Amino acid sequence: MNGTTLLSIKEFSELSGVKQSVLRYYDEIGILSPVKRGKNGYRYYSPQQIVTLNLINVLSDLHTPLREIGKLEKHRTPESILELFIRQESKFDCEMRRLQASYSITHVYRSLIQVGLAANEFEITDSEMDELPIILGDINNFGDSPLFYETFIRFCQQAQPSLVNLSYPVGGYYESMADFLQEPSQPTRFCSIDPAGRDKKAAGRYLVGYTRGYYGEMGDVGARLCAYANEHDLIFNGPLYAVYVHDEISIKNTSKYLAQVAVSIAPKKAGKVLSA
Hints:
By secondary structure, the protein is of the alpha+beta class. The protein folds into 2 domains: 3-75, Multidrug-efflux Transporter Regulator, Chain: A, Domain 2, CATH 1.10.1660.10; 104-267, Multidrug-efflux Transporter 1 Regulator Bmrr, Chain A (Alpha-Beta Barrel). It has helices spanning 9-16, 20-29, 49-61, 66-74, 78-118, 148-157, 177-182, 221-231, and strands at 7-8, 36-37, 43-45, 125-129, 132-136, 170-174, 189-192, 199-201, 204-212, 234-246, 258-267. Strand 2 and strand 3 form a beta hairpin. The longest helix is centred in the middle third of the chain and has 41 residues, at 78-118. It is elongated and about 95 Å long. The protein starts with 6 loop residues before the first strand and ends in a 9-residue tail after the last strand.
């Protein structure tokens, strides 16, 4: 190798973006040594060593022990590097799945919070809503314990066997507006707002209203939905979904939680809609 192709440690540091102190440390532990030392002890590196340095940095950032990197530096073979890359790819797969799950959960909560901030909670709106993946829990049995939370706890206990990810927001599903009006605090099922859900909230036309209060406290939103439907000749023709767009994630005061209530509707052909 011609001497003119070598770089001082200062030049190699500037080229690679790696501090001189780190390069000295790598030399001391034997994972990246200079190709030449001057009589004055100065270190000189080949420009091609930046490729090795970049790989060391990648492996180090991925928590590969420096001891293992050092072994590879001394005894590199295609087989040993292949084995390392296979192990690292497996770690990458796990890490990417974890990051994707974290991103998905954050995205869902962020979207709901934005919906709540944009909503006029005192208005009822006639809206076209997109399809929404969800996971429906088992049919609730309030039985002799009509309290919302006792039934919700049972849902949580059954979540893992039912493949329900409780990291996502949980809402209430009602078979009909009549069920909601009969007992707003007792959803037919609980549902997880999971983007990978096997069930779907169908796309279509919904009447949407908002109400504030703690879980299961739906205020007068049912009456307001009915009044709007009567006034605009609409009928309720499908399930109702109650989802908290602002909950303990974003609000400390439980009485200020904000729930979105959306019920499927259609133009009225005959008869009257339900009244609260």
